[in-house]
Amino acid sequence: MLPDITEHDVRAVPGRSSIPPPAPAARAAVDLASRRIGTAAGEGLPIRWADAVADAARPPSNDLADDLDRAVMRTSLRGRKPMWWALFGLLQILLAVAAPVGLVWLVVIALAGWLQLPAIPTFDVGPFATPFLLLVGGLLAGLLLAAVARWLAGIGARKRGKMVDKRLRLAIGAVADERVVEPVEQVLTDHAGARAGIRRALG
Question: Residue 156: is it exposed, middle or buried by C-beta count within 10 angstroms (0-12/13-18/19+)?
Answer without folding.
Answer: middle
